[in-house]
């Protein structure tokens, strides 16, 4: 059926994947060819984890489509000067002119070589939304694949506004790009700032509501009473950036104040590195010949390789043993009868001083509260119990800990992720029913499901694709401007790795290059889609200056905005309700999408595209044609760049590679391959089938929600609590950097501790700001933090009136949330307009008094500060992005930073 | 019998506003209009703070005040309990809006245009012209229920027959069903939870039931929702000044009351001293001016005759019914000296004045108005104002000294009676409580009904016994202090009921907590 034949339709099926918590399935109501409404897709209620429902953002799609402020024709910049103060003087042009202009730049770049003199790709691209733009960009990934090397390091929030440390350490430890409780079975969830009810989408909200409905308990530990705190049984207001001490103190309680028998000793012994013996230099003591880590066998009273059958490894104690110790750069020590302890004993010693009383002083939570929480955690762990999951008996441990943004990224992220995962291991709750789980993989391959990504690695642990740190293999010139392969071994080298690098370094090096790294260069061509780093990153003033210097920027533009204010070409693409695409659904996906099915869903255009907007697949094909890449482009589609490989064991729907294909032909073919994949080659219906049904799925085993069965099957252990591998890699990385003369990453090297110690993190911020900006930190007495808003998060919808209207029903939108005690000291009342300033900038807004926030903390919800985006620019909403500096000192070893800054508040008069 | 109702599980609601948005979609409501919305409540002081989200909208009350007050019968209650509005006969007087204690009624005069520059295509397609300038509110998605039932579907179970907000709720916090059917969704929820109804003390029998804890049977808090006079961060849920009735409505009470009072005074005085056609005409002009002002306020002014459709229940209809013969007989009286006609006309004027008192009393959405004591106060102040005005007219017209002294004495008595009525009203209001700002406005200023001011009025009026000319300022003071009071009552002290949480919900394994009635106080 052609789009033009659809005018008589009254509804179509589609999906909403505006945020990472999707995709969710929708129905669109159509009247007289006009999309009039969005509804849940109840025909998918049996297969979708949230019964086919969608969140408030999806209901903004109709207004998003008909927004009078949309860019509806291709445009070119006529003012060559770029900058915030420059009018771009965009003029409408034809698609032909737009595409030819872009192709000319691309062809020139290709002629000059894919990489420039610094080794950086000449073409860069920035996509927002945690990968979700892929579900709206049709076959553009095929074009990028055909093109070759592309720099994706100019982030729009990655690294500074994501779960960065969790992504990297989570994938290392349990294939968990995102970590979540097994909510449907949980009894107790300790949530350190996880804003589930704002960030975890429809599935997360439904799972947690169901858990509350059966009397489960969640304790929210965070500086302010978020919507998630509101939905929790208890709120514990903790001082910002001190979550690690709470976690460390809980580990102390479990190890020093509770009986060992309350822990899951068997799990620790058999499924973690706890029994591995540690040699004097901090590396494992290894068997001489095999170099396998040794454990102390209590049956035979001697050290044996960890995988020796029939042993009973010791967890507690000090033993005398002999063996080899292997350090960094293959340095080796031979030990004869040395005293050594299992990693578990080392852990016990490590946390000895981390008492609740010690923690209370730092995190401002009473020791009795910490003890109470830790005790509840043990009480609910159900050590020894099992549960049957689809015929398989698995451990049942219904306790979990989740971490939110600013807790699980930036300095302290490692400590918190480690603390959380160790807490899970102590009660055997990692990757088992009821416990702490991962959702999906992004750095390990294949990304399709977590079980398949589990392969054996060294020392009985899973393989992890670290960026090399050996002398021979270390990559001194990373093919990205943020040097992720040079600086961050954990960032790996998957298609997602660039997004997991230290993205603010890409922006920072454009301001001033880093010593002993390649000279900073600008990309010849920069593509931007569904992202607006000019307001969504940090130090937004500096970011704008950087992008104003880029020579040629192509923005797929929805409306004019702050980033495409710097563009040379604007391309209007079909938006959510106008474009055609098939995507994968099901399996396990962040944030809390755990399906019993997997398959595909269609985004069927509900209406004819407005104006001159074109389907992204058409644009991609045209670019491929005009850059001579058609064959490679079609080959990429055949290989699966459209989301489905067109060739399988029992089928082959490959497109001819020499000719361009129409949009519907491409997606019809992809639909056929999808049908074949879902039915193991038995069926091959195409677009028509999906238009009728909306989706097509097959069963996904619930056993696959848990990594534990696959770890058992492959005889692998979780690499916890001791980080011998990271300890070694850190030393090697330090050596490589120093060999190259790089010393500015030394602070980051300190993160490579085998077990993290508490470092004064609030003090780290205070010192860094004081030193860099030569300020008295006491002049900036408040910690400023942010929180997600379900209405806005990821949606790019700050320009929609309806979203603004409904979001305002939730306190704090558009203002600065402040504790009344703090306000009283400043003589402020509810609604007073204040200026909030950090050492690098200022923003203003109205005070919103709420008792649910610490007196030393301020909160700004969402990300605003728009100065171009229609409608949004007129909102009086403050934003912390212009106040938060990009600083190396505040960048952790994974390359991430936390949304946190010290600020001052000054009344400016007036009331909102 | 069937009564459709909704159970709202406060343990599950996350405040996401998906229901708000879904409702706006399905019902194509105007920017700013939210038939369904979710409120954000916070209770307590740091660090012992609770926060809860409370969906509100039309409660489809068992005894809906909006139904009682509607002068045109546009508001109806169906046999299945759904309160509906017939847009075709609604005159847009907004009486229902001030009668609703849940702030659930809206009136929009312009076509939908979220972006003010122009209507978007979906706004044009979805345009509902019949809703312009008349009352609108949540319908419980009546059309879906009716269509579903016709097709054998069960509302609350089958999405096609269920309100859009319930369908959209991502936390499954909203349940819909027939409360009279023990097997329905709602009945089951009520049997498994403790629940309350909002503003139960107003006696409306709301059809939204708020589940606040596990357990069985209805159980309100042992600690009733706490009135917090000046709550922190609760401006969105605290009482707000009603905007449905402005100075035009106030003018009806000001001029109508004084006019009716004047006619009564002129009738009684005229019986002794001869009737004054001028006083009669001034009285009728005042009443007429008041009615003209209120006519200017109604959304569909040319439907004004529909106001006569609801004599059984609405005091606004009854006021209108009293007005017509009042004018007829009043004009007749002005041309005759027949005491029968004068007294008949004056009697109708008093009925008109009494209706005004009852109009306010029936407006259950405004705590300052709905007090029983408002009726005698409105009558007393109308009569006092009328008498004050008559005194001035009499003075100017040169009434004889003894007659003038009788007027002065009568006025002194009326001022005392009015003060007594005010005292009763204010004391009673203070005992049951009202929005903090209502008290602030009622007690603000100098020219009001307070003891100090009224003593001054008495002194100045009494001075007329010695210096007859003092009757002019005395009468004016009596008149103006009444007018200022009524203007304040209608436009400045008329804070709505606001919202309240009877009990903060238990979240999962947590405990429930005391509720809050923000922005309220005893005084």
Topology:
The complex is a heterodimer of chains A (912) and B (523).
Chain A: E1 11-16, E2 24-31, E3 34-40, H1 61-66, E4 75-77, E5 90-92, H2 95-112, E6 123-127, H3 140-147, H4 164-174, E7 179-181, E8 188-192, H5 196-199, H6 201-213, E9 217-221, H7 227-230, E10 234-236, H8 243-257, H9 265-271, E11 277-278, E12 285-286, E13 294-297, E14 302-305, E15 319-326, E16 332-342, H10 343-350, H11 356-363, H12 367-379, E17 386-389, E18 392-395, E19 399-403, H13 413-426, E20 436-438, H14 450-453, H15 484-487, H16 503-511, E21 525-529, H17 533-536, H18 540-548, E22 553-556, E23 569-571, E24 581-589, E25 593-603, H19 616-626, H20 630-641, H21 663-678, H22 687-693, E26 695-699, H23 708-714, H24 724-739, H25 746-749, H26 761-773, E27 782-787, H27 801-807, E28 815-818, H28 820-825, E29 832-837, E30 842-849, E31 857-861, E32 901-911
Chain B: E1 4-9, H1 18-27, E2 36-45, E3 48-57, H2 65-69, E4 75-77, E5 83-85, H3 95-99, E6 106-107, H4 121-125, E7 135-136, H5 142-150, H6 164-168, E8 174-178, H7 185-192, E9 193-196, E10 208-214, E11 226-228, H8 247-273, H9 277-297, H10 315-335, H11 339-362, H12 374-397, H13 401-432, E12 434-435, H14 436-442, H15 451-463, H16 471-492, E13 501-504, E14 513-518, E15 520-521
Parallel strand pairs in B: 1-10, 11-14
Antiparallel strand pairs in B: 1-8, 2-3, 4-5, 6-7, 9-10, 12-15, 13-14
């Amino acid at each position: 059926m052609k789009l033009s034949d659809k005018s008589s339709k009254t509804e179509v099926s589609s999906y909403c994947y505006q945020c990472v918590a999707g995709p969710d399935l929708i129905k669109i109501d159509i009247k007289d060819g006009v999309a009039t409404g969005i509804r849940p897709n109840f025909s998918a209620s049996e297969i979708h984890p949230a019964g086919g429902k969608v969140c408030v953002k999806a209901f903004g799609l109709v207004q998003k489509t008909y927004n009078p402020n949309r860019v509806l024709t291709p445009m070119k910049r006529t003012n060559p000067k770029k900058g915030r103060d420059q009018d771009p003087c965009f003029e409408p042009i034809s698609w032909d002119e737009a595409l030819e202009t872009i192709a000319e730049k691309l062809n020139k770049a290709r002629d000059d070589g894919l990489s420039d003199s610094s080794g950086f790709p000449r073409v860069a691209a920035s996509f927002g939304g945690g990968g979700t733009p892929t579900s709206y960009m049709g076959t553009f990934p095929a074009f990028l694949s055909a093109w070759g090397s592309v720099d994706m390091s100019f982030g729009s929030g990655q690294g500074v506004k994501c779960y960065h440390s969790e992504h990297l350490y989570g994938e290392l430890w349990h294939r968990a790009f995102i970590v979540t409780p097994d909510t449907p079975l949980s009894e107790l969830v300790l949530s350190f700032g996880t804003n589930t009810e704002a960030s975890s989408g429809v599935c997360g909200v439904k799972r947690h509501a169901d858990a509350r409905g059966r009397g489960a308990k969640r304790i929210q530990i965070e500086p302010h009473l978020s919507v998630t705190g509101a939905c929790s049984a208890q709120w514990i207001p903790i001082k910002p950036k001190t979550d690690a001490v709470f976690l460390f103190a809980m580990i102390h309680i479990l190890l020093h104040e509770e009986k060992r028998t309350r822990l899951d000793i068997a799990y620790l012994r058999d499924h973690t590195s706890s029994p591995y013996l540690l040699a004097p230099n901090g590396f494992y003591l290894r068997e001489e010949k095999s170099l396998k880590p040794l454990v102390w066998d209590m049956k035979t009273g001697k050290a044996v390789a960890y995988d020796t059958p029939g042993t009973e490894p010791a967890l507690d104690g000090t033993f005398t043993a002999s063996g080899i110790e292997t350090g960094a750069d293959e340095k080796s020590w031979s030990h004869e009868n040395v005293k050594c302890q299992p990693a578990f004993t080392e852990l016990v010693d490590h946390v000895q001083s981390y008492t609740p009383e010690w923690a209370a002083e730092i995190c401002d939570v009473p020791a009795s509260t910490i003890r109470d929480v830790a005790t509840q955690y043990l009480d609910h762990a159900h050590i020894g119990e099992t549960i049957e999951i689809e015929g398989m008996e698995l451990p049942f441990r219904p306790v979990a800990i989740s971490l939110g943004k600013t807790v699980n990224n930036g300095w302290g992220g490692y400590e918190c992720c480690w603390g959380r995962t160790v807490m899970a291991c102590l009660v055997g709750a990692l990757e088992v029913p009821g416990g702490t789980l991962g959702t999906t993989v992004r750095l390990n391959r294949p990304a399709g499901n977590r079980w398949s990504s589990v392969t054996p690695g060294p020392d009985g642990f899973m393989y992890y694709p670290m960026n090399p740190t050996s002398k021979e293999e270390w990559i001194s010139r990373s093919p990205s401007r943020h040097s992720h392969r040079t600086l961050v071994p954990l960032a790996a080298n998957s298609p997602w790795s660039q997004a997991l690098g230290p993205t603010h370094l890409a922006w920072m090096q454009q301001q001033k290059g880093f010593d002993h790294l390649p000279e900073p260069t600008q990309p010849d061509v920069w593509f931007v889609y569904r992202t607006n780093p000019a307001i969504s990153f940090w130090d937004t003033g500096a970011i704008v200056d950087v992008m104003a210097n880029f020579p040629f920027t192509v923005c797929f533009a929805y409306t004019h905005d702050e980033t495409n204010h710097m563009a040379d070409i604007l391309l209007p693409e079909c938006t959510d309700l106008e474009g055609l695409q098939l995507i994968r659904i099901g399996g396990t996906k962040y944030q809390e999408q755990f399906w019993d099915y997997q398959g595909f869903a269609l985004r069927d255009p509900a209406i004819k595209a407005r104006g001159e907007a074109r389907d992204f697949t058409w644009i991609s094909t045209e670019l491929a044609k005009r850059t001579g890449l058609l064959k490679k482009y079609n080959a990429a589609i055949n290989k699966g760049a459209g989301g489905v490989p067109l060739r399988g064991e029992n089928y082959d729907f490959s497109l001819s590679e020499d000719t361009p294909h129409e949009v519907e032909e491409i997606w019809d073919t992809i639909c056929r391959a999808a049908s074949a994949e879902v039915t193991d080659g038995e069926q091959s219906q195409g677009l028509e089938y999906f238009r009728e049904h909306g989706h097509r799925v097959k069963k996904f085993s619930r056993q696959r929600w848990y990594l534990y069965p696959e770890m058992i099957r492959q005889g692998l252990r979780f690499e916890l609590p001791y980080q011998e591998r990271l300890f070694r890699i850190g030393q090697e990385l330090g050596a490589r950097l120093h060999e190259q003369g790089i010393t500015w990453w030394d602070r980051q090297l300190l993160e490579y501790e085998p077990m993290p110690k508490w470092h004064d993190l609030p003090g780290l911020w205070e010192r860094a700001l004081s030193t860099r900006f030569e300020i008295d930190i006491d002049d900036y007495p408040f910690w400023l933090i942010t929180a997600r808003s379900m209405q806005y998060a990821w949606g790019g919808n700050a320009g929609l009136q309806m979203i603004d209207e409904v979001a305002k029903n939730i306190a704090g939108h558009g203002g600065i949330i402040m504790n009344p005690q703090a306000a009283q000291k400043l003589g402020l009342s509810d609604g007073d307009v204040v200026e909030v300033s950090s050492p690098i900038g200022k923003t203003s807004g109205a005070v919103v008094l709420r008792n649910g926030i610490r007196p030393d903390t301020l909160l700004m919800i969402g990300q605003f500060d728009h100065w171009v985006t229609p409608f949004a620019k007129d909102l009086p909403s403050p934003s912390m992005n212009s106040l938060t500096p990009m600083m190396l000192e505040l960048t952790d070893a994974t390359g991430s930073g936390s949304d946190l800054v010290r600020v001052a508040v000054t009344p400016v008069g007036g009331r909102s | 019998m069937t009564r459709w109702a909704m159970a709202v599980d406060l343990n599950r609601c996350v405040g996401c506003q998906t229901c708000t948005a879904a409702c706006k979609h399905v019902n194509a409501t105007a920017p700013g209009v939210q038939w369904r919305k979710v409120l954000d409540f916070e209770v307590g002081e740091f660090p012992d703070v609770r926060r809860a989200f409370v969906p509100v909208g039309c409660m489809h009350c068992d005894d809906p005040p909006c139904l009682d007050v509607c002068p045109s019968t546009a508001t109806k209650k169906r046999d299945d309990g759904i309160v509906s509005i017939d847009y075709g006969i609604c005159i847009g007087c907004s009486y229902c809006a001030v009668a609703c204690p849940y702030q659930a009624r809206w009136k929009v005069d312009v076509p939908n245009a979220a972006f003010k520059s122009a209507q978007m295509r979906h706004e044009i397609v979805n345009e509902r012209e019949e809703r312009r300038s008349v009352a609108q509110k949540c319908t419980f998605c009546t059309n879906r229920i009716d269509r579903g039932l016709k097709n054998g579907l069960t509302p609350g179970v089958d999405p096609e027959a269920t309100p859009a907000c319930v369908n959209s709720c991502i936390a499954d916090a909203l349940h819909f069903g027939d409360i009279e059917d023990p097997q329905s969704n709602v009945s089951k929820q009520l049997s498994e939870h403790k629940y309350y109804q909002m503003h139960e003390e107003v006696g409306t029998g709301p059809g939204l039931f708020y589940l606040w804890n596990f357990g069985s049977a209805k159980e309100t808090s042992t600690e009733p929702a706490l009135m917090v006079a000046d709550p922190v961060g609760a401006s969105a849920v605290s009482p707000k000044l009603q905007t449905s009735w402005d100075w035009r409505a106030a003018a009806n009470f000001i001029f109508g009351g004084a006019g009716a009072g004047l006619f009564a005074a002129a009738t009684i005085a005229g019986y002794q001293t001869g009737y004054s056609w001028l006083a009669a005409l001034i009285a009728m002009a005042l009443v007429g001016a008041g009615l003209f002002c209120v006519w200017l306020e109604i959304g569909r002014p040319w439907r004004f005759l529909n106001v006569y459709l609801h004599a059984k229940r609405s005091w606004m209809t009854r006021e209108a019914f009293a007005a017509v013969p009042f004018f007829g007989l009043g004009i007749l009286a002005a041309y005759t000296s027949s005491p029968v006609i004068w007294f008949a006309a004056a009697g109708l004027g008093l009925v008109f004045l009494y209706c005004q008192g009852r109009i306010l009393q029936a407006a259950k959405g405004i705590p300052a108005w709905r007090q029983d004591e408002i009726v005698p106060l409105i009558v007393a102040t109308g009569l006092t104002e009328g008498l004050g005005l008559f005194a001035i007219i009499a003075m100017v017209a040169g009434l004889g000294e003894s007659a003038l002294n009788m007027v002065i004495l009568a006025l002194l008595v009326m001022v005392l009676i009015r003060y007594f009525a005010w005292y009763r009203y204010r004391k009673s209001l203070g005992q049951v409580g009202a929005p903090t700002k209502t008290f602030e406005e009622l007690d603000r200023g100098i020219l009001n009904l307070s003891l100090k001011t009224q003593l001054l009025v008495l002194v100045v009026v009494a001075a007329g016994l010695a210096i007859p000319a003092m009757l002019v300022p005395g009468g004016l003071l009596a008149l103006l202090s009444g007018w200022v009071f009524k203007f304040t009552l209608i436009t400045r002290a008329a804070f709505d009921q606001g919202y309240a949480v009877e009990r903060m919900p238990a979240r999962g394994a947590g405990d429930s907590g005391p509720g809050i009635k923000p922005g309220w106080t005893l005084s």
